[in-house]
Design goal:
Elements lengths: L12 E2 L2 E3 L2 E3 L5 E6 L3 E2 L2 E3 L2 E3 L4 E6 L6 E3 L2 E3 L18 E4 L8 E2 L2 E3 L2 E5 L13 E6 L1 E7 L2 E5 L13 E6 L3 E6 L2 E12 L8 E4 L2 E10 L9 H4 L1 E5 L2
Parallel strand pairs: 1-5, 2-6, 3-7, 4-8, 6-9, 7-10, 8-11, 9-13, 10-14, 11-15, 12-16, 13-16, 14-17, 15-18, 16-19, 17-20, 18-20, 19-21, 20-22, 22-23
């Protein structure tokens, strides 16, 4: 996938810090968004977020070398206004480029965040299945490390009680994704990939603690050789 070069952007939003804020309420789309190929080397750190959004903390449209760290997100999930919208899938933290415009995010870091008690309103929307705590799409060289995710999508609100949701999910057009030292508990699937086009992800999944999950992983055929049990700690599988 060819991408627009970062040096082609005339204006940059860089070295900004969003720190020690409290955000409460129902946000229409994102709570905090870092967007665009000229958005580089910014930090979103030590914030508390309480409330609904499609993505509470979002790195988007080719923003690169940014950091989301030491934030607490509580009570997240989709607003009822989006429960039947098939163009959205919920991830309280999302790192993504924009495949349609050939924008790739590069070198973003998501570390030491806590995401807890995430739920969606009742719906048959098929996009619910790929809801996650942290999502990655169209982004290279991404580090997801030392995050805690507890009680995600245990609401029974998808298709009248069908299990759904991931702790961490990797979508299409990603390369070199490291998922390390995270703690994931009380979610249907701990770690997964949703890959329709891209089978060369170079995915590293190591030293994570997975507890009270029903499915350890759902990986694309190319990544199915990754032994999640061997390099991670699995404490309890739910039935």
């Amino acid at each position: 996938m060819s991408t627009r070069r970062r040096e082609d952007f005339k204006y940059n939003a860089s070295h900004n810090v969003i720190e020690k804020n409290t955000f409460e309420g129902d946000f229409i789309w994102n709570t905090v968004e870092l967007a665009g190929g000229g958005t580089i080397k910014n930090k979103v750190v030590y914030n508390t977020v309480k409330g609904k959004a499609v993505n509470n903390l979002d790195i988007d449209k080719g923003a690169s070398y940014n950091e989301i760290s030491y934030n607490i997100i509580e009570g997240a999930g989709l607003s009822p206004r989006y429960k039947n919208d098939k163009n959205v899938r919920c991830s309280p933290i999302m790192v993504q480029g924009m495949a349609s415009k050939k924008y790739k995010g590069v070198g973003n870091v998501v570390t030491h965040n806590r995401i807890e008690n995430v739920s969606n309103p009742s719906s048959d929307n098929t996009k619910y299945f790929f809801s996650s705590g942290i999502g990655i799409a169209c982004a290279d060289n991404t580090l997801i490390e030392n995050n805690i995710m507890i009680n995600l999508y245990q609401d029974g609100n998808y298709r009248r009680g069908k299990d759904y949701g991931y702790g961490i999910i990797v979508h299409d057009d990603c390369f070199d994704v490291k998922i390390l030292n995270n703690q994931i508990s009380n979610v249907y699937t701990a770690i997964g990939t949703n890959l329709n086009r891209d089978d060369k992800v170079n995915l590293q999944v190591e030293n994570n603690v997975l507890n009270q999950v029903k499915v350890i992983s759902k990986l694309s055929p190319h990544n199915s050789s990754i032994d999640i049990r061997k390099k991670n700690t699995v404490q309890e599988i739910l039935k």
